[in-house]
Amino acid sequence: MSMSLDSPEIILPGDPLPQLSPLLSPPSTETSTSTTDTKPRSLRLGPGLTLSPTTPSTPILPYRYGTLNLTSHTKRPTASILSTPRHYHPSTNDPVLVTLLRTTAEQFIVQLAPYTPPAIIPFENYIINNAGTTASARKSRPNLPIGATIYARVAVVHKHLESVELSVPDPTFGEVISQKNTSSSSSSNQKNKKESSTSISAGTTTGASSIANRAEVTPYILSTSQPMTKLLLAEETLGKPLLSAVASKVPFEMIVGKNGRVWIDATTQKEVIQVVRCFKEFDEAEAWNDEDGGLAKGRQIVGKVCGK
Amino acid sequence: MTSSPLIPEISLNPLPQSDGSCQYTCPTSRTTILTSVNGPLEVRPKDELPNHATIEVIVKPGIGVAGVRETRLSSLIHSTLQSLILTNHHPRTLIQIVAQIVQAEDHTSLPLLLTPLLNCTILSLLIAGIPMRTVGWSVHLAVLQNNSRGNFKTAEGQVFKLEEKTGGNGDKMDTEENEKAVAVVVRNPNSEILGLAKSSHTLTFSKEGEMLLIESLECSQGSGGESADGQGWDITDFLKLAEEGKRICCEEGVEIVRDALGDRKVF
After folding, report:
1. Is 0.90 topped by the overall pTM?
2. pLDDT tens digit sequence for A36-71
3. Cβ pair B132:A14 closer than 8 A
4. Which of A12, A67, A289 lies nearest to residue B258, judging by beta carbons?
5. Which residue in chain A is spatially nearest to B127 when comparing CA positions?
6. Tell me, what CATH number does A77's domain have?
7. Under an 8 A CB cutoff, do B86 and A50 touch?
8. Using H for helix, E for strand and C for coil, what is the string for A113-141?
9. Alpha carbons within 13 A on the beta-carbon side of A195
10. Bigger pLDDT: B115 vs B236
11. What positions does the domain Exoribonuclease phosphorolytic occupy (chain B) (predicted)?
12. Is residue B198 part of a domain?
């Protein structure tokens, strides 16, 4: 356990977690001090932790390596193991970008990540318009082309269920279409324009004017690693060095799915490619692992790709 | 990384497309293994288990095509990992482990390959975030005849005698002052030392000191074929050896894992 003091201690699977003992409030009537019969009353276990009766000091077993993330000051304390495995493990309420594989009588079959069992979006989970009516009725059923990209939310994850269930709960979710392309193919019934959840712009806001008068642009869907995805989602903290560096050169819009897919749109095709290259090179260099959070590397890449 | 002669060279995630990968070079025998772990993946229907994840271990040989030896290695790794991985966390899925032997002194020797394979696999499982009950580490110990006069080279701290409890820095040359026949143990031997050995023991222990794997074999070269009954080692020697192996796995091995993973940023 000779970890350096500046970095939090790495927890290995099976490590005892004595620091969690005070949070496991013992039954109020008994004053037994033995930790074996204390049950976690109020502590919420996040990813990476599970209950196990056999662990030495607390009945909580870490099953992944990482650092312990403990919020004990809130009303309901939570503990989890922070780690960034490359594989995406769906958890409820995660925003994801999925690809439509096929449509059945009751649901869309979509893909979350390569080589994993497909996820489903039941039609009753698909809210199609601003009025909030569901698409369960046959005539109002959404008609999406195979291969369409859908921005959805993870609704149900259970390890014993057949597949992960997603939902499109409100108009901020739905099929992801480039604003430009929608206006050109407005005859189709794809009215659920996706207002991008994360829009970064340099200087002036990406108003309607910049989008309306641009030429035909195909947005890009970039696959990113899990650390990179976390970085892009945390746009105000972790991702700020990179995102502001890119946005100072190229205004762009992006939608980040936690499953490691990022939808990138900009005013010209060249700019789309530039943003994609910046993200890709940053990711491939594993710059998030740098001491400065990728600040220097991000600047260097942006300078190289977008010019001075 | 090569500060100590007994610390293996570990490179984490050398393969960009796999969920977790590791390249491991044994410090003394220079056996190099590359493993990749992917999972949980979609499982083939015939391998599907209703309540557990299927663990698949594929060992790819450094030379030639895979045969019985690789099947044997993969079944040993599989049975060791079965008790480490919490397979009930991802039912009806597949955890696929592929181990490639990159470099080895002797591609036909099971004991020389097994320890690097196991250690490398455990590191890549950790990196891949596969749910595990605990962490294990493996060590290979070769028992040498006391009178074997081979002038082999060993690293500092690689050799210890079974009599002294502390172990550590016993030098092979010190054995001549000892009248009693004291077995000399070399940890992670190379093929030259293994050739002189009386017996070879691959031991795997979990962090808590549970024994996960014992793979012992008698080597005819060192013993000169004197024990035909298959008992090439003494049980008291073996118990001492196991004690030392446990110490190496639980203290040094776990320290190596912690140091290797501690370099990585987690957020």
Report:
1. no
2. 444 445 688 888 888 887 766 678 889 999 888 888
3. yes
4. A12
5. A85
6. 2.40.50.100
7. yes
8. CCCCCCEEEEHHHEECCCCCCECCCCCCC
9. 7
10. B115
11. 9-131
12. yes
